[in-house]
What we know:
mainly alpha; 20 helices; 79% helix; globular
Amino acid sequence: MIAAVLFISFAVLLLIGAPIAVCLGVSSVISMIIQGAGRPLDTVMSSLPQLFSSSTSKFVLLAIPFFILAGNIMDKAQISKRLIRLAETCVGHLRGGLAIVCVIVSCFFAAISGSGPATVAALGLVMIPGMIRSGYSPSFSAALMGCAGAIGVIIPPSITFVVYGSIADTSIGDLFKAGVIPGLIMGAALIITALLIGRKLKLESLPKASWHDRWVAFKEAFWGLLMPVIILGGIYGGITTPTEAGAIAVVYALFVEVFITRSMTRKLFFEIIKSSVRINAAIFLVVASATALGQIMMYYNLSAAVLDTIMGISTSKVVIMALILVVLLILGTFLEAAAIIMIVTPLLLPVINAIGVDPVHFGIIMLTSFAVGGQTPPVGMTLFVGASIAKISIERLSIASIPYILTLVVMLVIIAFVPQL
């Protein structure tokens, strides 16, 4: 009864366009009120404040505001333009060079921002108009930029890795390590797909840059390139935790922009702080609301019910994994990554443990599916960002994105069934 109320109220709120945090929170409150019928309202709701506080005060989650702030500092200081310039001087002269630049820079910037939509927003404002001016169609440019930016959820340090690690009680350092190879493979696959499509479109190339130009571009982008090295080097080397690495990243970004590039102003600094606070508030509101939902699901032991249902369909690892992939892809088209992680992880962990899938591997599978969902209507975030920058309709961009989405789906299947990656 309560489970039905929980999911029906959530679905109704989602369909009428309520923000995901509201859907999670309100459906949880409704379920709690019905569950506690006959008791005083203040008694029923007394656990909510403590639940919200405990869910958002985990030490590991502190990495999220640090990474967001560091990424915002580097973004506002125009590091994206320097990275694009470096990539253009290195591979821009190749046929379809700007398409290659788009993917390479997205991989670099993803390692700085830790967010797919942020990568598309920061790079797309420069890359998409530049590709259009060079003869690329708006739909081709926005589709490639959107899918390349979606890799941001895979390449460390990804914010969604931190959320998943905190829920699954899995080492975030191990998740960061596990995301490197799949992220790079997905980037390579997108480049190949773009070049194959480009054969029909006769993609343009840039004039070949001199070694002097490349050296100048490298020096300008050096401090931005060094940031992911510092973050990941500290984590992989066992020197810092992800949270400590995030704090170091903030200090490093401020040092670079204040004392080296000298692009930081007081006005810009406060804009960065306000932007970071807004993003963090949205994420942590989802985390708090989803925790309340998770407590109700735990109280009614819904994870055991999900396990029994799935194992009742089949005991084959291949069939169960295929079923989970379909569910994750469908959810990814409707919900934000953080919300899916908070809702689905507690339900599916018993299932993947039962079929012998490592939680780290499962985390990569989940985040890869979100990369696909981010570019898929009706709620794909990177899709909407790309369409607004290129000034084209969602329908047109969705059609142009199909080859890249199919490429990402193939990569998802490979990652799911080849755990050695």
